[in-house]
Amino acid sequence: MPLLDVRNLTTYYMTRRGPVRAVEDVSFAVEKAQAMGLAGESGCGKTTIALSLLRILPPEGKIVRGQILFEGKDIVKMSEKELREHIRWKGIALIFQGAMNALNPVYKIKEQIVEAIKIHEPNVTKREAEERAKKLFELVGLDPSRVDNYPHEFSGGMKQRACIAMALACNPKLLIADEPGTALDVVVQAQILKLLRELKEKLSISLIVISHDLSLITETCDTIAIMYAGKIVEFADIVEMFKKPLHPYAQALIESFPSISSKKYKFVSIPGAPPNLLNPPSGCRFHERCKYAMDICKKKEPEFKEVSKGHFVACHLVGG
Fold first, then answer.
1. d(CA 297, CA 249)
2. For residue 189, what pLDDT is reported?
3. For the chain: N or C, fewer Cβ within 10 A?
4. Among 9-18, 39-48, 60-69, 260-269, whose mean pLDDT is lowest?
């Protein structure tokens, strides 16, 4: 049994103009101690999936159908009490996008970590929680004495490490990092990615890394899911994906990133723009921008199927 098994997850945002189909029929699995990457353009539904996994969507967000099985139990059917006691922070923890704004500026970082521990583990004393906060700082490479600092006294990389420490406060089994490299320079990004890899090995936790930057995902993950317009169009082992991408969108996404080892070539952009998810196109959602589009692509939605072991794709060009 995988640690996390998402089946046909569909999440809409209800607006006055109608439902925005942010995520539709998304399925994937994350094994224990495995790292999975979730890649795609901005607005394709990556963060919506993360919020759905913890059931912390904004008021207009709604899980319309599907299952989110965590250790065999369906998160979609859980009560708020069950989510608070067993899932949020203890089972699944989320490092929110943009560490610069994730911490409360008027409270010391220690107070924010202690509060999270006390809410989810009421039997822990304040002194024990403070000691745990110091150990967490040490774990993520920060001086334990800095827990008494305010967020404005930290650099961007230090804030990101503090957010990771906070996410680990209740020993989660799955850690979701949403755009962990946002607003950080490449040197600090590399340090954060190295830290995530080390934590995964040291703590034997599972990891989901959400990013539009494929280089971040290749540095950290074992498998990768490529998203386009609210759907996963391809899923494979990270090496397999880069050696043999099958979906035209995955191919274009990979070709848009430079390589220091390959020959020089001209970058080719994808024409057009992602569709409006208030009224997505019929058939394959990528057909309007795809240079290989056929008549069937405009009419019939391709099936998300396994073409080789562990390699799934939704494209009429593949497998006949």
1. 14
2. 87
3. C
4. 260-269
Question: In this predicted structure, which of 86-95, 97-106, 137-146 has the lowest mean pLDDT?
Answer: 97-106
Provide the whole-model pTM: 0.93
pLDDT value, residue 264: 62
Name residue 70's beta-bridge partners: 4, 73
3-state secondary structure of 23: strand
- Provide the pairing of β-strand 174-178 with 206-211: parallel
318 close to 248: Cβ distance less than 8 angstroms: no
State both tokens at 107: 């409270």
Q: Which helix (H) or strand (E) holds 126?
A: helix 126-139
136 contacts 127 by C-beta, under 8 angstroms = no
- The pLDDT confidence band at residue 317, using thresholds 50, 70 and 90, is very high
C-beta of residue 197 within 8 angstroms of C-beta of residue 26? no
Evaluate whether 208 touches 176 at the Cβ level (below 8 Å): yes
Instruction: Classify each residue of 195-225 as buried b or exposed e, where b means 16 or more C-beta atoms within 10 Å of its C-beta.
Output: bbeebbeeeebbbbbbbbbbebbbbbbbbbb
φ, ψ (nearest 5 deg) of residue 34: -110, 150
Distance CA 90, CA 84 (A): 9
DSSP assignment letter at 122: T
Task: Kindly tell me if the per-residue pLDDT of 266 is higher than 80.
Answer: no
> What is the CB-side half-sphere exposure of residue 31 using CA atoms within 13 A?
8
State the pairing for strand pair 223-228/231-237.
antiparallel
Give 265-291 as a DSSP string.
----PPPS-PPPTTSPPSS-TTTTT-T
Tokens of 168: 């680990």
Number of Cβ within a 10 Å radius of residue 86:
17
Q: Return the structure tokens found at 257.
A: 């990133």
